[in-house]
Amino acid sequence: MLNRFIRELRIEFYWLKKDFIRRFQLDTPIGLIGVIALLSGLGLFILISQGVAKIFRAAIPWVNGSAIGSIYWTSILFAIKVSFMFLLFSASILILLWLKTRSRR
Predict the structure, then answer these.
(1) Which of 25, 37, 60, 69 could make a disulfide contact with 92, Cβ separation 3.0–4.6 Å?
(2) What is the per-residue pLDDT across 47-56, written as a single tens digit (0 to 9) for each?
């Protein structure tokens, strides 16, 4: 009885998975690159908004002599994070466009 129930659940999940993949096609290269582009774009948006907020917070009290070093290294690390996210975002968009044009042939 239990084996029959498990077998029926497996069959149901198999067809549910096939229907889900047919509808959204997330296992194709275009779907995966699209998800990566979406997530990296969201990450880039969050990082840029953090940078803008940091600029406004840093502009309110003028920087003292002891805080110059921390502001300097914070800005360098922020620039590295933003450039990496932008590189990931632009590469995923380019790969997405390349895969979309290649798959139409």
Answers:
(1) 37
(2) 777 777 777 6
